[in-house]
Amino acid sequence: MLSALQKYLIIPKLLRLSRSAPKNRPVAWDRYWAGIARTGVQGEVLWDSGNDHELLGYRDVLQRHLDPGLPVVDIGCGHGSFTRALSSYFPQVLGVDVSSHAVARARSESAGMENVSYVVRDMTAPGAGAGLVGPTDANVFIRGVLHVLDQADQAALVDNLRELVGSRGTVFLAETNFQGNPVDYIAHLGATTRNIPEPLERAIRELPMPGHFGPAERSRVMPTDIWELVEDGPATIETNPMTGVAGASAVPGYFAVLRARR
What we know:
- It is a single chain.
- The protein has 262 residues and is an alpha/beta fold.
- The protein has nine helices and seven strands; from the N terminus they run αααβαβαββαβαααββ.
- Helix content is 35%, strand content 18%.
- It has a seven-stranded mixed sheet, with helices on both faces.
């Protein structure tokens, strides 16, 4: 655990690293994924634990609330680790990401899986939900996306979710909900005054600064007069085990299950 002084000493390096991140969000994500050489265990992706333990923690909730006859759209799929895991429980899973390099890697890592497909699309663009799964309604799985969007993009994404789910689909979301400032957050993940683990440093250097997303943020962007809250609660977001310190790769999170009101 870092002292207050040690956390203060990290600030200059944090500011210096984050200053280099592209301001354009799609550009930032595509450059990030273009530079990733390894995923999975001992990989370079900060939020990739290399196993399906986190999804197994969601399994009962997903099976309880999501229509198993509908396809699932995994928004912000990255290299497709959750997309592939979801394919064990649903007939068709479509991974969607703003980065063409992420989608190319996801397709490569999913070769031979007949019920998994991918598409490049910015889900904050007007009408982005149209035609994704044809004429049917869909379930939506979204993990670790809303907390890295600003409020305008969150609202735009949620508008597209309504089109996707229609009258039968359900949204499952799981988001980082760490209650602390950015220095507290990176210290939790293993940053010290001497070292920042490489996957964490890469994310700071190349990607937009994340926030957090919990019940208050969900109420703002998905108000109950438009969305029915079916279930919610705490979650644990599992990240790359970079330090070997117990608990350092587990980030407090929040999950919610919602359906569009008609």
